[in-house]
Amino acid sequence: MKNFSGSFSKLFLVSLLAGTMMLAGCGENNPTSSTTDKDASDAKNITDSSASTYNVLGKISPTIGQFDSNSKITVYLTNIASEDESSNACRGQVFAFQKVNAGYYEVKAVDSNNIYKTEIIYKKIDSNIDDLTLTMTPRATEVEDLVVVTLTGKIVDKFGKDIPFASVTAENTKTGQIVKTSTNPDNGIYEFKEIPAGTYKVTYSKDSFEDDTEDLIITDENNINFMNKVVANNTLTNVTLNYKLAQTGSIAGVLTGYNPGDKCILYRTTSENAATVPGVVLKFTPQNNGYFFIKNLPTGWYIVAKDGCAAPFAVADTQGNFIGYAFNEGDTYFSSWLQVLTDTTTPVPSTDQ
User: Fold this and answer.
1) Model confidence pLDDT, tens digit, residues 221-266
2) Which domain-ending residue is among 219, 240, 261?
3) What range does the domain containing 166 cover?
4) pTM (two decimals)
5) Which of 37, 204, 235, 351 has the most CB atoms lying inside 10 A of its own CB?
6) Is 26 a member of any domain?
């Protein structure tokens, strides 16, 4: 029994060794299940006899920055052995292929807008894949988008006074990207914090002012141009907004016949003979001696009346033509119609009652 057992053991080892050598000789046509990517030259010599099909799901990921929505990326899946090719337009950042035969494939992503460089990888497909990622690099012309800078500027009126609460919007002329900010509540200073490099149209807007649009070009941290001027120390040239209605100095004077403590009304119309009903600009209380000073008024015609008077009424000439507005008899008004002009202080003449 011992001799028989020993002979059997030797025969088994010899058979096992022969089988192992036979398997080693077939290894070239039976690749292992490793998912390591292969060079195209090596993969050309590899085939997979499996008839199974699989689904492939993947996404596009930029190497730097955010995905550019203006890119038009198509993903090509090519069987290296059979050279059969399928394509899929990337929707957003996602692509998908269904019923893909098992085998080794070239996976290529091409951007027809040339925003990204073409990306190629080699992948063995022998199971469903739901996490394939193609990492694409922006072309040299897009590297400017990787540069970000912080800029400050200031908005003023034509008198050099700060304009707080103004809106500032920068639109990238190439990508359509919008960057918004506003001026400081205490002054006209605004800040673009970490704005990407690019070419922008910057629009400034504020109630009672006309909008203004200026060009901003950011090439890199040391090459910035604004309003056709080189920007130094990341500080933009002041932007001046024009008033929609001309701003003036003031109305000032002493009201003759004024009783201390009386409240007054300031009416305004667009001209001395305007057809529009005068509107109340504000109510105020002069000093005890009747002195008052009101500034920053838009151009027009004004009259000072005692609070409680009836609203002004239209006056016509003998032919029925409109000539202006007046008060009811007995109402108190402290001035005739006063014209307010830009950059002037209009004095109050002697009192009319």
Assistant:
1) 889 999 999 999 999 999 999 887 656 678 998 988 888 989 998 8
2) 240
3) 147-240
4) 0.36
5) 204
6) no
